[in-house]
Design a protein that fits this description.
This protein is mainly α. Helices cover 45% and strands 7% of the residues. A hairpin with a 6-residue loop joins strand 1 and strand 2.
């Protein structure tokens, strides 16, 4: 026997809303008693701590990248001392470049996290922004 929404089961719209996370599912299978509202997901002040941790990790990655770059270049003098040869260690140089890239990505994400911790975009609709900018005079 199949259950329909008229027999006490949940309808397709209700199941879709539950799957989207709008309402808490009821363990008994019936309609939810009260739908708790979730707070806004973007404005969360704890994101500032995440941004701080990411900035610390980015500074550490930058410091390690400089150390790797310095250890990846070796100057070797010739036996007579007339010429100095430079030897590049590819693994250290590529590691320094990789750590520099990770540091840049961490700084970018820290900026994003900080913006999300401080402010939220306004929810103005398109109907409020109907006037073009710059304003045009149609009669001229």
């Amino acid at each position: 026997m199949t259950r329909t929404s008229g027999e006490g089961g949940r309808g397709a719209d209700q199941a879709f809303a539950d799957a989207a996370g709008d309402r808490a599912p009821d363990p008994t299978g019936g309609p939810p008693a009260s739908a708790p509202t979730r707070p806004g997901r973007l404005h969360q002040p704890w994101r500032a701590l995440v941004a701080l941790a990411e900035l610390i990790l980015a500074a550490t990655a930058g410091w390690l990248a400089v150390r790797l770059w310095q250890s990846g270049i070796t100057v070797v003098p010739t036996p007579d001392g007339s010429v100095e040869l430079t030897h590049y260690h590819g693994d250290a140089i590529s590691g320094a470049i990789g750590l520099g890239l990770v540091g840049v990505l961490l700084v970018l994400d820290a900026g994003r996290q900080l913006l999300l911790a401080v402010r939220v975009r306004s929810r103005r609709g398109r109907s409020e922004r109907t006037e073009p900018w710059p304003p045009f005079d149609e009669d001229v």
